[in-house]
Specification:
By secondary structure, the chain is α+β, with helices and mostly antiparallel strands. The chain is 62% helix and 6% strand. It has a four-stranded mixed sheet with strand order 1-2-4-3, with helices on both faces. A hairpin with a 5-residue loop joins strand 3 and strand 4. It starts with 8 loop residues before the first helix and ends with a helix. This is Peptidase M48 domain-containing protein. Keywords: Membrane, Transmembrane, Transmembrane helix.
Length: 281
Amino acid sequence: MKNHTRLTKEELHSLRHPKERSRFIQTIFVLLPLGVILVSLIIASLGGVLLVAPIVLFFLWFSAKLYTAFCMNNTVLVNKNSFPKAQEAIEDACTFFGYDYPVNAYVYEDGSYNLKLMPLLRNKVLMLNSELFKDGNSNDELRFLVGRFIGALASKHYRFTWLQGFLNGVEKLMIFNILLYPYERATKLSGDRMGLAMIDGDICTAVHAMIKLVVGSEIADQVNVKSFIAQERIFGREFFCWLRRALSTFPHHTTRVTELIRFAMVRYPQRAETMAKYLDL
């Protein structure tokens, strides 16, 4: 399934989760006190923090470049000759979401069904686990997963990545990272919607891929989706579940699946109708 038509800015914006904008504004206001604290630390340390910042940021950049250099000769570069379906999915996603910068992808041996993005370099790098290409994993599932990341790049969801890296690099400031997490969680929900748009609203394929992220591809067929999302209603309000979510950049996976299905019911009602009836949503 291909998407040759480039989304307009309005169409891309319509895929964002409703909470993303408000949480972005909230994050900006929350960061203002952090700026005051940083200025205070600079004054108190006679400029010492100013010396630490470029060192930390350089270390992040250097580590990313070093890891990319490792990938160049120890993993398989995705191109039209090796893993052409992945290359096609990346190119199609860049066109569809209007992302005009290079995205390199590498495949490496890993038994988990997943992929990750390294957003710290100008040329973004996607690391694809080999599990994604095993028999039984469909091309549309791969396109859904790739679309989540390329859509996020086009939407500038990684704008705070350098700040997060800096806060993690300065032990006394690490606690402030939690202030960025509500926005980060909202962007993950937006990314799921963008991945769904990549496969034209095929919610069954998207949910199947999401379940595989939890339990792997070999036993995903044994998961009852209705029971899985019911876990959110049963456990989601417990204090420690709330606390665990508050300390993470990711929403609970049960929340992600439920939110994606509800979005599909509105955006792609015909494709979501059967699943919605089965799940009583």
